[in-house]
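Let's do one together. I've listed all components of the complex below, 423 residues spread over two lines.
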Amino acid sequence: MSAPLFELLLRLGDDRLVLGHRNSEWCGHGPILEEDIALANIALDLVGQSQLFLELAGTIEGQGRDADNLAYWRDESQFRNLQMVELPRGDFAFTLVRQLLFAAWSHHYLDALAKGRRPDLAGIAAKAFKENRYHFRHASQWVIRLGDGTEESHARAQAALDELWPWTGEFFYRDETDQVLAGDGLAPEPETIHEPWLALVTDVLTRATLVPPTGPMRMVGGRRGRHTEHLGHMLAEMQIVARSHPGASW
Amino acid sequence: MIGDSALTLQSGLDEVDVIRILREVKDPEVPVLDVVELGIVRGASVEGRRAIVRVTPTYSGCPAMKVIEREIAECLERHGFENVVVETTFVPPWTTDWISAEAREKLRAYGIAPPGPAAAIELVPLGGPTRTIPCPYCGSSRTTTESEFGSTACKSIHFCRSCHQPFEHFKAI
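Okay, and this is what the predicted structure of the assembly comes out as:
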């Protein structure tokens, strides 16, 4: 087993599992029917991508754990997702601004991953990359509409951006796992994603008349299992059925 | 009718026959298309009575994949194969460019606008849709995009301003 590769696959899988779950919370609560359907579809894509990454993680680990096992039977401190994706869904503007920031980062990160030297990992990344384009387009259209919309929609979108921006530092934080994988030609150096990410996000934010805050960035730690108080509550809800009825099927 | 019950292992079936037999398996979400013309069957191999079929999912989270895999196995077993194995492959990733011309026409006749070239999808569309989607009912190009996410992962929702009919479009990806 390659420990850094297993670690990377958990990060990729957990980001998408947690964000997918947050987006799925809109099912039945969307502001309009089309958006209810859109957010549920995006959640489905993200959870599907998560399943592919976690399944491969289980194979690499070689301990007999599959995607479901990794999703439902790990505790909070074993999750490797970015802290930003575990924050409560907030209002519609918060959900869409987060989706924009994440999808813009995913766009460049997955693109680099798809050019990596391991065909199985690169193949899943190439697939997710194509789906992510639709997520990014959807989020960018809404952020522009909200930011450059009414006084209230602008205020909510700007408030969401002010809250979310400090969490984006974690996208580009580099640790020994990233270092090893970049050296092996499997994954990009996180900081190389910063410039193209900023260009993509700035293009949308400018059209949306939104301005990123200039204050300090948040601490990082999600990649090492340090999370906000929100993840544990989310996992309790997500994992309760699987843990109450181990091995159940229908 | 493509499915031919006369095709059995006694007549010595090969990979080409397996692909032909699999045209009996329809996409449960778009029943007008079979899994071969949808482009998700990537290959097959036969060893004696054993068949291995390689499939690739349309979308990562497509909930129909498990059903499709089961139906592929059941279909081949009806034709005399045993121990059918359905393997999943992700390389190269599925694209709507693999949907055959004949299948595109079937989609249109069914009321779903077929996909355009996947390469034509722009990342940030501003000021309207990147491509006009002709109405599958009246052919008008006076259509609007209501949402890029529809009843299934592979479809978007549109509206025809000529015949006032909402319709679905198989998204290019």
